Predict the 3D structure of the following.
Amino acid sequence: MASEPTAQDTSSPDPRRPAAKRRLHRWYGPLLAFLVTAAAFCTAWVARGSFPFGNTGRAINDQANQYVPFHRALWDLVHGQAAGDVLFTWRGGFGQQFLSDYFTYLGNPFSWLAVLVPREHVDLAVFAITPITMGTAAALMTVYLGKLQPGPWWQRGVLGATYGLCGWALSDASYIPMWLWGLVALPMLGIAVEWCLEGRRWPGVALLVALAWFGNFYTAMMATIAACVLLGIRLLTRDMTGPQRLRAVWRASTAAATGILLTLPLLLPSFLSSGAAQPTKAAAFDPVRIDVFLAGMLPATHLWGGRPRLYVASLGLILAGAFVFNTAIAKKTRLVWAAATLLVVASFQFPPTQYVWHGLAVPNGNPYREAFVFSGMVVVVAWLALANRPRPQHLALAAGLLLVATFVLRNTDDFGGSTWPAVLGGGAVSLLALVLLALGEKRRVLIPVAAVLMVGVVFAESTAAAANADTRRARERWAKPAATSNRSIGNHADAVRGVEGWPAYRTDSGTPQTSYNDALSLRAEGPQYYSSYLPEATYKALEPLGYGYKNDGRTFFGADNPVLDAIFSIGARVRPGDAKNSWTASKFPTPPLVTVRTGPFTSPAPADSVYARQENVLGAAVHQVPDVTRGGSATEQTYTARCVPGSEAFWYSPALNGTLRADGVKLPLEDRMSGVLPLGEVPASGRLDVTVNTRTKNADAGAHPIGCLNRAKLDAAVDRLTATGATKVTASGHGMEAALPEGAAGTAVCAMTAGPGWQCSAGSGPAAPPADFNGLVSLPLPAGTDKVSCSFTPKGLAPGLAAAALALLALISVTVTGHRRRRRTTPTP
């Protein structure tokens, strides 16, 4: 029997109703889905006592380290308080591209909610993006289900909510605003597929594709692959002729290409930035065991680490199970949908197809980021089953299979939490509601009861699943919730603003850091930066100088070091005060952002030491690098050295992890994260004794971990660089200009890393890519040069704009042509 609307169908508004009421009626289902989804997620926050509904931190991992700081940067940009523009930011990493970061971290259209609140409440807006985006995805899925097959609005709304509250959304992406846009993109592209099959709205299809890709290209790519699967399914199951199928494929492919081309001004620079980024050591894909994989399909299950979260609420699973038994649906339709769903989920375990889902790249983190696609397909087959009135015995069989699967998988690693209550309690209530719905064909009074039970069980089960995911995830060290606003953070920001002086000098927000992007968050200009697009050139410039880093070099930290301050024109620093939650700021002389070097300089210090590398960039010998004597044991190492009394001692040991003690100083060592550390003033005896209790096997501090700074020599070098450097520096959104003193000659060195995208000119000369001076931007100065200027343009922006312009022209042409054709064919009254 063909899949047709049934007598139960009440989704189509009564044509006898006024037009306004008919239009309002269409919103009932999407509104229900949105409210159930957003309310369930927020109720889980309340149950957990999470901020802003309690004192438990809300920000998880990159939410605190990236997303909140980047949204604060967006706030600054919109409100005219940013040091930079949409192409570039001077805050963090000593100046970095911003366009790719915007596209990746701020593409979710709801991110713009952050600019509507006071800056101190941006973090609350970031948290609100999650339930709003999930609710929007649920609402759009409700619309898509109605396009596949009509049916009662409230039933579609309930199943739309099961999609918005799927395991991927609750356990994987609930704290990642940009990924959540993929949850929206899937039903949105499903609607676009239906328009292609109907042979209409080509411009609308292109715009929906563009909207999906503008939000987040990574999950949009997965949703686009899923849309291709949906198109194939519909071409096989829909009653169409061969030419109609070809036209549908042509419309879909051309509209998709046009939509993606519209995003090319963001997509192409991001692709090229990714290629120039510091590489990571992502491991090869290793599928989880089959029992763990299947356990991820059980409702309310949160497995540890990078494991698949494939579930939807019990109501959706029971209906999806009943789909294959429902003889009211054509056998071909059941076979194609079931086979496609199984093939999609199987592709998650097969490395070649898994790489396709992830854009032919090895996932860095959870390897099952496309899990929402399977959940979406489960909800679709659940709706097709429900819309065709499944029999109670088939529903009971599906519920029994769910119970058996849960029993079989009960001993799987990390199984637990809310799974049994969801299967037993949620499954029983879901089955009861569906049976009452079936009986309601003859006893209409049972339908409202079934509706309340269906809405209630999805709400309660999903709330429990969200709270369980939060609880279990918080036990993992990487996911410990962090504060993003409190008195200390506010005072820290005030201290930074109190000494800001950009572009005359940079301000370093200091340590301890609240986030890896404190420079963005606190409006400083230090080295602190965390981005997937941090260039390899920046890593190669900063790592040799003694800056700490992690994430394979995509996250850099500050260093309280006077030589580095002089190299990068840092003239103010913030440090913790003596009182609780207090911060103090200090200003000190520093060279300008642009200095002039008159000749080559080679440090007399040991060439393999960090202190020699610092001196080569500074252009002056300011350190004493003594020989050290090592003793102790493998776990308690001792180092002894002698320096000039009164000089300032520093330590650098990127291979060691543990604790350092020296003359009353106790410092944590976190291998490469620590960077250069101050040990204090060298005592009158000139002897330095350092003890390191290390947890690092077969490693030591190297030949030259200690350097002693002669402050008088450094002051002389700073004075010389200031006297011969720029007399005035002005900075624009993505460029800078420096006026030079009369008679300047040699090489101009700019205190920013030589990443791709810079063009510089001396005087009125032509712009050209700059030279590399130990990783910094530099350019030779012809005689008589009185200024230098540099401008940053992301690679790929120009061709991306050209391609988008052509796509926009095609979109406008098709729209205008279609409008004229409709006018010609519309009969005159």
In short: The two ends are 43 Å apart (CA to CA). The first helix runs from residue 19 to 25. The first strand starts at residue 88 and ends at 89.
